[in-house]
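[audit] Reproducing an earlier prediction to check determinism. Same input, same settings, fresh worker. If the tokens differ from the archived copy the diff job will pick it up downstream; this log only records the rerun itself.
[audit] input (436 residues):
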Amino acid sequence: MRGKLLAALVVIGILFCVVGTGQAQEKEKAAAKRIAIRAGRLIDGKSDSVLMNALILVENDRIVSVSAGGTAPAGVEVVDLSKATVLPGFVDAHTHLLLNGDITSEDYDVQLLKQSIPYRAILSARNARIALEHGFTAMRDLETEGAMYADVDIKNAIANGEVPGPRMQVATRAMTPTGMYPLLGYSWELQVPKGVQYVDGVDGARKAVREQVMYGADWIKYYSDRKYHFEGDGVLHSMVNFTDEEAKAIVDETHRLGKKVAAHAIGSDGIAAALRAGVDTIEHGDGLTDALIDEMARKGVYWGADDYGRGVCGTGARWELDEDGGFGKTAFQKALKKNVKIALGTDAGGFDWKELNQAKEFGYYVNYGMTPLQAIRSGTVVPAELLGWSDKMGTIEAGKWADLVAVSGDPLKDITELERVKFVMKGGVVFKNEAH
């Protein structure tokens, strides 16, 4: 009898569970937030043409439908952007949230010597908010510059809704061999902070990758070169940091663990070494030659090409170029012609987040030879693919995250319109609306 009673109670419990779950699902469905956005002009990231008078229907954090004209369903909140141009949220594939300018070595040293990691993390949350308000709904952060794994905390805080900011993929601590990155030049009697993780030998390389992945790295970044200089051939050369065996160990272990590798590689020698190792992205790439461009195109390696006039994080300076971009512009145009995958990156953090809008990079790309539409795709479609999120973002279509921005004018006629974002939605939530 007792056994039958127990069995009956179990059945009743299961029924309550099923009924309760069904009721919860119905309540969740009833509570689904729906928004209709009326876009005067829509650049969806897929088409070469602009869709006029488009209606974008959003439910919770996803786009449900995109149609020309049409009427919003009854009872749905309508956001009127009929006088604006709507685009996918921007993506910056090279940032440093935990850095606030390093144009001089003193700028860099002060942050590592006088600011605690918690204080820098607070500033990085501010920086994330700035980026989001400028229209960047996703970013790849390529090292914390001595702030250990604080980028993982920022990424998680944003994902958990604790602070506003872009969707993040992070690289934690960049790698160099011992003695090859700031802080340098201090007395050997002092133990000063390091901007990177020192990694030596094949076994050390594999262990470092495992450690960083354990603590939350989505990407592994290493410094392929240093000491940039021109030689008689007119090519920008560099001194390679890691042995080929060490670099390949970094890449192989990272790929084995299902992650990707970004290589800081400025000179031609550093770029060549990184390509031999099998990296996924080349960052900066100022010393690209015809042969290296061909190799990148053949291997499908992405180029994180940032503006050639700014300083490189941690190095303190770049060489002077003419206002048209000099050899950098030539390499950019060749890479564009060879269909190298160019993902917009700004190196934000190398300059003060409060002083320069990341969206200025779009204008540099147009100046270097891209059409405005190509530049827009370099900051939406291409980095979405790079991040492995092309099924979730980069274009405005059904099923994608509702990550949208809007500007007043037409960026296909004036790319600088992207520097004046009036509306930002991330995951169906409006973070900024100054459209009139």
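[audit] rerun output stored. Observation attached for the diff report: Confidence is low (pLDDT under 50) at residues 5-30, 308-324.
[audit] end
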